[in-house]
């Protein structure tokens, strides 16, 4: 997996209202002494009323006073002397014929407990259509509390609200689908951001730049202000418009950029536009930092947003736009770079009254024929008998003792497309933020000559969500296991089973989709952890005064757990002392994000760059941190540098040999592990070019050059049930094939880029791979959720499952610091150094996995305890002095470890 530095694509508008479209239910909103609930836009709850936005709207009902409505506290998100524009889409549900007033109001609670009200705007609305309420407000100073609310109709009249935007910017009409908001503000570090001073402070990056008030015979005009600029006569993709911002950006501060852009010319209607930083640091080394990208068109202005952070102290910083093919102009109307606003922490998701383990599938056992099921497409559903009576194993591990299945199954025939199969609507049965486990038995018709992919899928408002997959190559029943989670309120959710080729019959039995109580499994995991990660220890004290030690107080403290907990790091990170401090304190292993990969160490043939890897390795050595070598080769063609791809087979073989000799000789004995050929289940560049034996050759040669390193296979989606190419069964066969060719495979890498982890699904993969007797490592673990509490729960599931399994011998996180991870919403530490809920959970688990004990020396001159493997200190307190000793508890045998301490 590749790590992208300082990459964050943000698509939300600059709206200070949280949950503005009620996609998160009533999260952040509160009905004011009345009742409120969110209605799906297509639900038909009110006859003739659908959401203006197409998704959701809120109904405020049981109103007994005209001032009752819907409110949100915006205190922390408003600034003094800023002007805010309010836009809301509203209507009423009323027995009255005349229009009813709806008001936008601010409630201002002062430090002395007095309260003022500030009128913002008013609209006369009816039950016939959505109306647009607008207004503006500005506060000279911020009081103790600022509450925004909508109110106004007469008592008994229900108030309907579709969306609310409060922005320090121009907001289009509520019917506009793409809201673009933009403000310069005092904090903008870009000079002349709207080109009102021509091209002052701007220049072309390898091309010409011009300023316009219109283009294309007046068809292109500015969205904001009077002018826009074009980067024209571009001959390279990197050509664009740039500004030197040296001295106006500070290190270790997060900045967000907002640019209004489009493209023009060369018959290109859509192209990638990127915002990039070019940074020169004092030693003259250059860095290119990707900030944001999007698909821009020649039809409309669009908003490009992203974030970046500088770790070191640069001598020069230039920000520029690039990306479209040569000959296509980049147009930019406005450009903003300012210190990024710190988002408020996400609240814990509500999980009251959750019926964990309750199947949301209706008539799963087919006791009522096909009731609840319907055919997706023009296929035929019938009920057959003869399917398994037991739940699939992964479901049994989650649900425990359970009623046997009926033995009935759905037979799907007359399938003319691979997506055809049985389906069921489950919209109203799902809750946000819950992790749902998915399982079923599946089988295909006889006479099929090639393996078929069977998939449990969900259609969530038209988007495909993978619930689990299995490859079925015979006429046996196969288990499908997977999971999913929904974090935004959907209007329609359908589950369906699909996948085999057209004409292939499909059989489905025992479909289960249930919210899983992931914490309930932790008790079992803690018992397993105690069994495999701890050891009984006898401290045996000796010395001239041993007979007098009876009753002496002993205090044992573990200073470090010896289990490998590591993280990905990158060269740019180590210029940030805050990053380094957190890393060396909380991790004992490291892996480099890109700096050891071939495309980094030799971007052009013969142009070798080991400086970045050397500096990272020096940091690790100084702090006694062991390092994994990632990776010698990468089998996925898109990751292979162009000069390597262009070689003929003889020259490619020579280049492969040179890469092995150069890397393994230079770093002999310094990397404990190597990922030899990354992601061989998902790519085949070297094998296609050089034959099947090249893979085992890479392993054998690496072993000859550095016998001290453990050589790993490494791949993704092994543990989550969502990818048939890398199922545990496929991975096992892959490893066996390598071993049969003489490859000294020493370890199994499971990357661990996972969504919605469920313990039994992960554990099942460990169990299957464990039969090979090789150490298993999570090599690139990350989890992602915008809600920090959900992210923390996901991370805890992964860490506990790995730490409790005897085949797992190490865990590497694929980074921990915001803006320096390959996935968004995966960080444990936010960009400017604050530890979030996921980071706190990691630290809590690290603390839980340290042993402490105290007591008194017994009459045998011994003190006994059970503790985790690792380093310890023991303090012995006698009448006259304190004695401090150190010792190590290794994994050893099942028998107690006897440690003799000479006093």
UniProtKB/TrEMBL annotation:
InterPro entries: CenC_carb-bd, Galactose-bd-like_sf, GH, GH10, GH10_dom. Pfam families: CBM_4_9 (PF02018), Glyco_hydro_10 (PF00331). Residues 543-845 form the GH10 domain. PROSITE patterns: GH10_2 (PS51760). GO terms for molecular function: endo-1,4-beta-xylanase activity. GO terms for biological process: xylan catabolic process. SMART domains: Glyco_10. Keywords: Carbohydrate metabolism, Hydrolase, Polysaccharide degradation, Repeat, Xylan degradation. Belongs to the glycosyl hydrolase 10 (cellulase F) family. This is Glycoside hydrolase. It comes from Macleaya cordata (Five-seeded plume-poppy). The lineage of its organism: Eukaryota, Viridiplantae, Streptophyta, Embryophyta, Tracheophyta.
């Amino acid at each position: 997996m590749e790590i992208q530095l300082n990459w964050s694509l943000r698509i939300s508008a600059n709206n200070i209202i949280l949950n503005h479209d009620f996609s998160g239910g009533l999260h952040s909103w509160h009905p004011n002494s009345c009742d409120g609930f969110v209605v799906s836009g297509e639900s038909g709850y009110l006859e003739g009323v659908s959401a203006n936005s197409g998704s959701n709207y809120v109904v405020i009902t049981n109103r007994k006073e005209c001032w009752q409505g819907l409110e949100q506290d915006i205190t922390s998100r408003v600034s003094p002397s800023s002007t805010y524009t309010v836009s809301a889409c509203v209507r009423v549900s009323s027995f009255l014929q005349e229009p009813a007033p709806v008001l936008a109001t601010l409630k201002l609670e002062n430090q002395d407990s007095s309260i003022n009200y500030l009128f913002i705007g008013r609209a006369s609305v009816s039950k016939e259509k959505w109306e647009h309420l607008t207004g503006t407000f500005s506060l000279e100073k911020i009081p103790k509390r600022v509450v925004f609310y909508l109110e106004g109709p007469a008592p008994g009249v229900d108030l309907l609200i579709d969306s609310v935007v409060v922005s320090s910017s121009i907001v289009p009409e509520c019917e506009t689908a793409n809201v673009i908001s933009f403000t310069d503000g005092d904090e903008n570090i870009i000079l002349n951001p709207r080109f009102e001073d021509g091209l002052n402070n701007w220049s072309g990056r390898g091309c010409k730049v011009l300023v316009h008030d219109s283009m294309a015979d007046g068809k292109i005009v500015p969205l904001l202000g009077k002018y826009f600029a074009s980067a024209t006569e571009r001959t390279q993709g990197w050509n664009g418009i740039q500004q030197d911002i040296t001295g106006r950006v500070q290190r270790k501060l997060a900045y967000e950029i907002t640019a209004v852009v489009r493209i023009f010319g060369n018959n290109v209607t859509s192209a990638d536009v990127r915002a990039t930083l070019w940074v020169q640091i004092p030693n003259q080394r250059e860095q290119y930092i990707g900030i944001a990208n999007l698909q821009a068109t020649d039809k409309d202005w669009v908003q490009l947003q992203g974030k970046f952070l500088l770790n070191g102290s640069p001598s020069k910083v230039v920000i520029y736009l690039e990306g479209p093919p040569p000959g296509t102009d980049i147009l930019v109307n406005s450009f903003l770079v300012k210190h990024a606003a710190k988002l408020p922490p996400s609240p814990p998701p509500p999980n009251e009254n959750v019926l964990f383990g309750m199947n949301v599938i209706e008539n799963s056992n087919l006791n009522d024929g096909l009731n609840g099921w319907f055919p997706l497409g023009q296929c035929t559903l019938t009920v057959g008998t003869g399917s398994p009576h037991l739940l699939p194993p992964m479901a049994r591990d989650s649900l425990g003792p359970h009623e046997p299945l009926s033995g009935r199954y759905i037979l799907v025939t007359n399938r003319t497309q691979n997506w055809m199969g049985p389906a069921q609507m489950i919209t109203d049965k799902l809750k946000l933020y819950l992790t749902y486990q998915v399982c079923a038995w599946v089988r295909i018709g006889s006479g099929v000559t090639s393996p078929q992919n069977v998939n449990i899928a969900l259609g969530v408002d038209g988007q495909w969500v993978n619930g689990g997959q299995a490859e079925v190559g015979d006429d046996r029943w196969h288990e499908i296991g997977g999971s999913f989670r929904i974090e935004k309120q959907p209007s329609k959710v359908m589950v369906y089973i699909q996948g085999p080729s057209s004409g292939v019959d499909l059989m489905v039995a025992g479909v289960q989709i249930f919210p899983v109580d992931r914490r309930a499994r932790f008790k079992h995991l803690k018992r397993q952890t105690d069994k495999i990660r701890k050891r009984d220890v006898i401290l045996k004290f000796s010395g001239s005064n041993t007979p007098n030690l009876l009753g002496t107080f002993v205090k044992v403290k573990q200073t470090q757990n010896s289990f490998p907990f590591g993280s990905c790091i990158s060269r740019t990170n180590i210029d940030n002392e805050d990053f380094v401090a957190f890393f060396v304190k909380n991790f004992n292993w490291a892996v480099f994000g890109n700096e050891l990969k071939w495309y980094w160490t030799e971007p052009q043939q013969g142009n070798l760059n080991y400086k970045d890897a050397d500096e990272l390795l020096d940091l690790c050595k100084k702090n006694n941190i062991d390092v994994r070598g990632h990776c010698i080769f990468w089998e996925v063609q898109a990751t292979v540098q162009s000069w390597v791809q262009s070689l003929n087979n003889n020259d490619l073989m020579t280049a492969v040999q040179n890469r092995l000799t150069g890397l393994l000789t230079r770093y002999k004995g310094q990397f404990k592990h190597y990922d030899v050929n990354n992601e061989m289940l998902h790519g085949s560049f070297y094998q296609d070019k050089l034959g099947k034996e090249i893979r085992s050759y890479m392993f054998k040669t690496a072993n000859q050059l550095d016998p001290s390193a453990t050589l790993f296979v490494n791949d993704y989606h092994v543990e989550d049930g969502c990818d048939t190419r890398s199922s545990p069964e496929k991975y096992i066969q892959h490893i066996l094939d390598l071993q049969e060719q003489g490859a000294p495979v020493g370890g199994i890498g499971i990357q661990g880029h996972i969504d919605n982890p469920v313990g039994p699904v992960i554990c099942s993969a460990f169990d299957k791979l464990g039969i090979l007797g090789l150490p298993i490592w999570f090599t690139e673990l990350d989890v992602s959720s915008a809600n920090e509490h959900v992210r923390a729960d996901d991370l805890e599931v992964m860490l506990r499952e790995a730490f409790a399994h005897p085949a797992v011998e190490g865990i590497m996180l694929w980074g921990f610091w915001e803006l320096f991870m390959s996935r968004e919403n995966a960080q444990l530490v936010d960009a400017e150094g604050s530890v979030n809920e996921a980071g706190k959970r990691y630290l809590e688990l690290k603390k839980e996995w340290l042993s402490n004990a105290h007591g008194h020396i017994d009459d045998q001159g011994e003190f006994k305890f059970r503790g985790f493997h690792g380093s310890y200190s023991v303090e012995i307190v006698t009448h006259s002095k304190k004695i401090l000793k150190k010792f190590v508890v290794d994994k050893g045998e099942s028998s107690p470890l006897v440690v003799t301490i000479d006093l």
